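Notes, p. 3: input format for complexes.
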Amino acid sequence: MGAANMTKTMDAPRWCTTELGKRAWAVGADVAAPHAASVDRDGRFPAEATQAMRDTGLLGAMVPVAFGGEGASLLEVSESIRALASHCASSALVLAMHQIEVAYLIHHGETTMLADLLRQVATGSVLMANANSEVGLGGDVSRSICALVHEGGRVHLEKDVLALSYAEYADAITVNCRKDPEAAGGEQVMLICGPGSFTVTATGEWDTMGLRGTCSSGYQLEVDEDKDMVLTDTWSTVVNQTGLAVTTVSLNSVWLGIAEAAAATAHASVRAEARRSIGSTPASALRLAELVVVLGQARAVLASTTAHIMAVGGGTSMEDDLPLVLEMRDLKLSMTTLCADVVMRSLSVCGLSGYKRGSKFSVERNVRDVLGGALMANNNRFYVDNAQLLLMVKSV
Ligand SMILES: Cc1cc2nc3c(=O)[nH]c(=O)nc-3n(C[C@H](O)[C@H](O)[C@H](O)COP(=O)(O)OP(=O)(O)OC[C@H]3O[C@@H](n4cnc5c(N)ncnc54)[C@H](O)[C@@H]3O)c2cc1C
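Output follows (396 residues plus flavin-adenine dinucleotide):
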């Protein structure tokens, strides 16, 4: 199903400039949006949208052309996630997390087996998830309790994962762990568990206020993999060179898409009110004008940091570029705050219609979804880390 076959492509908003973004917008409008309410209500995986992401090439878009993909840039990927988030935040978060794992494969998948997996990703047949968090460590991913056990050419791993999104629907899972049972907590590597190499057993439930379709329950993960599926680079190298940049842009694209959806609803609500009283500007239009200023700030900060990251280039070590690290971490702090502000202002503009579930101008799902941004890696952690980082940089 290519872009030309999708019915709503022409409705994509002005900010949706790339072909990939427009393709994602069509998937969002035609497939994700009609199912978004039931995904949210039933806390179920967005199976229809994910299938459409497979069919339209969204899952494989970032894979380099040499491996069968489209070689989409971080900007194009960001736009596609944002476009999807305008229709269903859970679907967009699935795409965002998948793309982060694909980036690890692209930049650090040195073995033949990992290159083969990347070629499979390009076909859309592999949805990737991550098992980075661990029970007992909260959101601290700089240490692991679990450890790889080497046995001949195989590695075995058991991990008690704090939250593993769409675990039961993923074809491959990336997981950080100590490199062996004797290693210290910070001596971590990343294992990519390919199709058929792992089992997941739920240890909790995912009955949350928002982002309900990501199905991010706790899971016991058991893996039996080939040793060639372990990345040669250490976990800290992988995070510094790739993880921070791609995670920052991808996840913040979700929060922006949610804010844009709420702002679009607020805009429609004000225009409807204006049509009822031709010749006068509704009072809510002033509040809308204020809201659009905040939305512009969120858009600008994401665009500027994405441009800085792309100028440095994927796969380049950013650990020495402390100002950029600070900027990326600040982006998350800005975006999660600004986007939540836009959504709350949208609620104020739409009034009771915005508060009601199922109303034409409802933003209640946006309100619940956007609040997840500040928790998905807790903002307090970022502030504490930035406070230390600021002592090391020469200027702000
Ligand atoms: C929608 C969603 C999807 C997710 N999907 C996945 C997934 O697919 N895979 C995965 O591995 N994980 C996933 N997670 C988990 C996520 O990555 C974090 O591990 C988790 O949100 C952290 O939970 P926490 O807030 O309880 O822990 P913490 O980050 O430990 O925070 C707990 C409390 O301690 C405070 N705190 C802790 N440490 C510090 C510090 N150093 N400085 C200041 N305050 C501190 C925080 O402010 C907070 O109040 C997901 C989370 C969400 C919300």
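The longest helix spans residues 235-276.
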